[in-house]
């Protein structure tokens, strides 16, 4: 059974690119537009990995991860943060919140796939 | 020497070194049980095994590597306190030690190949040894997880055959909680190459009832066959790098490969870390971590003010080896490379050494050229030939450039002179029991070599003096609200064509009253004389003058300051003192940039011509007609003392309608030199006066003019002294030049 990944980003293009890469590699992909949407999309569903942007409307990535880690079902779910080169502080904040992995934007689909497969094999 | 011979030599070194290490190892093993604090001994034993393993790998002695590796692993357990010291363990280790000795002796005898009988023997020994490591933690651990030491050993044997990577992974306790599944990392490793062997290390597992299912206790020893570089492999564990222990080491031929790589590196890297990173032997992360570690240690030692601990901070290489980022042979190869690069750099330095005498000769010749050029220039004016004038003008310009270029050749930074004082300040402050810091600024200021050579001694006097008399003891300083440590500043900078060297301290400053009292006592001044601060401070340069209340062996015998002044004056410089009581003293030495050729200002008095150094000249004004033969004039509301050069040098002045005044500055004071004619700038080649005239005051040297006549160079500081003294004693005429010094 293929693994499921939740992609949370307000930019549709990013969701699309990531989606193509992940689906191509054999993962299931759920998309969400921000942290709030992400939480509601999860709704007890089994996911193996979550990819989240930091800056998003309604609920930002850091808050999203913090809330996520409160939920017993997702306590151990690995999270990849999407940060930019200049967001070293955000990266650390994300790690504190519980997102221990990260991918630096801008990234090639291939880089994203590499990071994902380090954490979850398809 | 051919490569083979060199390798043979190296092999000899290896065997000698190994046998020595083995001897040490045996001795330590024998004393291990009796030692109350065996940690140091265990470390020594471990290090010996580690070194032997590492260096035998370089020579492709894989059977020694394989055997020693197991011994080393057991010793590592011992070192980590996971198994205890006991007579049984020692009894098992001693034969192993003998076995390695045997293997090495075989190498000495030229048998570098594996001997099946010996290997079987070794296997038996290792089995005995493995019993210890298995017994210790596995007793309590969950039983289905066997700690497969044998497998590990097998893994070693297999791995060394090819240039595989050995990965030691110990995942952090929070790995599961962070969503990091060790298994997925291991699976991902497969995308880089083949996992030849994988051994799960579960010694960290607690007894079942203490075990927390959310905590990760796992470690892996992985043999990876991959063409990927170290950085790439490390990249796999990027997300767990901070919380886990990740060691990636090449085995067998891999070590040799690194050494080759290091040898082949371009020779533009001078840092050890950079060399290792460039060869791929360590990753940048490992380098950063090691440097960080080193820095932390250094800082801790510094904060504690512990000089010994500071000196004992391990070198970068040691740290890298300790954390198994790199093996010792690779490190040694890198160190060797670093040495080579350094040597090469020294050879390639962008400078050439030239005999100082040749330079002096060149400067002399250029001096002559300047004089001859001035002569040509003068002659050319006699002809109404525009072309000639133009050409001589061009020639003069070129001569000037050549002159500047040649003088530049002798310029050296004063920093080398300054750096000598670091040691002096350290030693003397220790001797005096005062804490004094030396601050050096402007070390790259350039000055003529001849000046640098001669300024060392006067500076030494000033520095010692400042430390001895200037800076107070710590308790006095604290009482005055100053920091306990005094500071001494050496500073150099260029200022209007001369170099200024300052020696300043933040000590007690000069005591004006005490200097005055002493000066009166010595008969240097009259009790009723009124002196400016500068004049008072200048008194300390009088021969035999010292206000120090105690005489120490550093300074205070009254010799020194007058010598300083004499030395500085001999360099055509002058020294001035700024001081504030309680705040410190600054000695400021002004020196000409060069001693050979200067820009001069030509003036005429009667039939004679004089040169005033241009860097002293501020302006020229006409002497008011009603001035008569006065000793001062009004310069825009300022009183300007006048020095009549005709009187000083006893030259008959032309009966002129007006005289000119050249306003000259010295040590913050101004004076006007009264002359007949102003003749403009002139490149002045300084010619020393003959021995006979050494003691003539007021003349610093002579020069030859374009028309062949001799002009005297006015010694500005001496004339100022005359001027001051004349004022003080209300004397009109100066004493005639005499031989008295």
UniProtKB/TrEMBL annotation, chain A:
InterPro entries: Bact_response_regulator, CheY-like_superfamily, Sig_transdc_resp-reg_receiver. SUPFAM superfamilies: CheY-like (SSF52172). Gene3D superfamilies: 3.40.50.2300. Residues 4-120 form the Response regulatory domain. Coiled coil: none annotated. The modification 4-aspartylphosphate is found at residue 53. PROSITE patterns: RESPONSE_REGULATORY. Keywords: Phosphoprotein. Transmembrane segments: none annotated. This is Response regulator.
TrEMBL record, chain B:
Residues 3-107 form the HPt domain. This is Chemotaxis protein CheA. It comes from the Bacteria. The modification Phosphohistidine is found at residue 50. InterPro entries: Bact_Chemotaxis_CheA, CheA-like_dim, CheA-like_homodim_sf, CheW-like_dom_sf, CheW-lke_dom, HATPase_C_sf, HATPase_dom, His_kinase_dom. Residues 397-595 form the Histidine kinase domain. It catalyses: ATP + protein L-histidine = ADP + protein N-phospho-L-histidine. Keywords: ATP-binding, Chemotaxis, Kinase, Nucleotide-binding, Phosphoprotein, Transferase, Two-component regulatory system.
